[in-house]
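Q: What would this chain look like folded?
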Amino acid sequence: MRSLLLTVTVLCLAFGPASGDVTRVSLGDIPRTYAHYLNAEEAALCGAAAATGGVGASFYNPALVARVRGAGGIATVRYNVKSRNYLPDDLDSSDHGLLFSQAVAVKSATPVTYGFSYAAPSYRSVELAGLVGGEVYEARFTGGLRFFEVLFGSRIGSSGQGAIGVAAGIVNLNEEARVSRPGSVESSRIDGIAASLAFGFVFDAAEWLSVGVGHRLSSSVEVEGELNAGGGPSSGTSETQSTSVVGLTYRATSALSVHASYLNAGWGAAKSTLAAYPDPERDLFSDAIGTAALGVEFVLPGDRVEIRAGGSKVVQGEAENAIVPEYSAGLGAVLRFRQYSAQLSLVREQFELDGESAEVINYGIYGSVGYSF
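A: My prediction, written as structure tokens:
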């Protein structure tokens, strides 16, 4: 639906009637679900190791922190370059952005592992400029969804072959918009917090096979804000996605591992992630968004360099008046030296707009550094 260029117009119109209590649903950053990769490992594998991977995948499955021996962690930044070819020729867009997207640090104290995490699975940084309705138009949208959580994991089973885990904390949602037109400057700001909770399980069935499952509950965020057009304060609610993942890792050899996962965002009809628009019909998922992913990792001789590649595809679900991920492909590498690691990955994402392939493509560059003692 190419009228998504009304991203511009809708927000302009939203300023007037949005004062007072409204139910806010989101535009947010694409994708509308938690499929946006948080670290270089998951970017390269396109989420294939979300249920059975390293400590960076604890956002999806907190039980993975119990695998850390001693202390471990990861920190990640990402840079996104997005194509907006659906916009008219006289409207330019710039929404490239560098984001500190994840930090995890945990320590084991047998039999419990504990720590903290920061995750920013969704954000916006968009600038638009051009002609709208014959008028010169400039706009800037910023905001994000951020999780601050404590992590707990514990080994279970006679030989510690299983693990359970939980992540609990707060989710913060904030957005700002500034729109300039001849003779007027309009702005809005909203902010809110809510409780967040996720739990998971992972089981090493054999030396060559691990299986895992994780679930993140939805959070209902009460937002408060201000509008300078239409008057006064504004308040409402926004609902984050509930997300489940199930997957496995097959270690074919000591050098080759294969990951597979299925990620389900939203159970049945659901609202989208960020709160930007007062239109209750915007960005509603008519069904859960199900994504299948497959990835491989290969360790080169010497055990210092590892190559990763993966892909994912949405196999279930539609969204009304929203963009959803259609497929993605990733490639990356990790360099290990002593207890440290440096990772770099590239990902290309194609999105679907109103049931049809869209010309909206996201290129992501992900860099992560990690440690394990």
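Residues 2-372 form a domain with the Porin fold (CATH 2.40.160.60).
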